[in-house]
Amino acid sequence: MNTMTLWHITGWEFAALAFAALLVGFSKTAVSGANTVSLAVFAAVLPARASTGVLLPVLIAGDLLAVATYRRHAHWPTLWRLFPAVAAGVVVGTVFLMWADDAIMRTSIGAILLLMAAVTVWRRRTADKAEEPDSVTSRAGRLKARSYGVLGGFTTMVANAGGPVMSMYLLSAGFRKLGFLGTSAFFFLIVNVSKLPFSAGLGLIDARSLLLDLALVVFVVPGALFGKWAVHRINQRLFEQLVIAATVVGGLQLLLR
Fold it and tell me: Where does the chain cross the membrane (predicted)?
């Protein structure tokens, strides 16, 4: 069955989704959080609610590739500290999705994208004040982990947009590049897999969405391979500026649509 006909999307729209899937792979192995651009593309091409269900398996494919690449660099004490708060945020996000219609979802995703862009800018400006990873064991560190965890769980459940939140937390905790990538890889694999039953129960994942995923997942692999090659060569500052700009444009497009 033709997935483009099934979803009533044009060739150009499928090309946009394929590029977004490519960017998912790149973000998972190079610049965590860059897939907010992919989120904007999916929500612009597909119905807002449906887009979150289609994007989730694509993200999980990217997570698997990231774990395979950086599995030795994960900081598990940080992950265990985050998961309870993230679970609470996912539950809150699920409740929100139970009553939000497509218009509210589109507006919410647009607002979350703009919030994430602001969060990323703040992260960049405070990165030089980073603490060592072990400092999260302090009382202030535990409070910070809970706050970021709840926000990350909510944003990842509602809009698959938890990347910038967790990026800011991990950088503020003093993680170097490889530790950052390894920790975030396991974090998002576990969180995204745990979201599958919630998304399926809400009707966001079904046979039709999985059929489109099969056509898109193949584009994640070259993106991840390119990210692995580029991670030590990319001009991080310029790329983050481009990601922020694209995220703002995507958020405004959804809000004004």
Answer: 82-99, 105-122, 148-172, 178-198, 210-232
